[in-house]
Design goal:
Length: about 100
């Protein structure tokens, strides 16, 4: 991978680090005002929504493949895990495959 490609992907790596570490400051730095969060409960936009999701979802994302669509767009294939409630105990779910679309400006 070239230095240019490495540099272009660094914000996406920081995004994963922010989400997995629940780092609110880093999370706010790596998104724009129109960030969108979507899942089985619907879709919402905005930095405040994203930060709430980072803090409360408990999700953990492990990138498994990177797909460069254009110089500004990358789709990241990742395994997702998050806690679920079962009998009052917090359990980890399986690892469904999901995708994140990132536009780097």
């Amino acid at each position: 991978m070239t230095d240019i490609e490495q540099g272009r992907l660094e914000p996406i790596r920081r995004w994963h680090r922010a989400v997995n570490e629940r780092d609110q400051a880093m999370a706010a730095e790596v998104v724009t005002a129109d960030v969108s969060v979507g899942g089985p409960r619907g879709r919402a936009e905005g930095v405040a929504v994203f930060l709430d999701w980072v803090e409360h979802s408990g999700i953990s994302l492990q990138p498994v493949a990177w797909h460069t669509i254009s110089p500004d767009v990358t789709v990241v294939e990742q395994d997702a895990r998050w806690p679920t409630e079962a009998g009052g105990r917090r359990l980890r779910s399986g690892s469904p495959r999901c995708f994140s679309w990132s536009e780097v400006e």
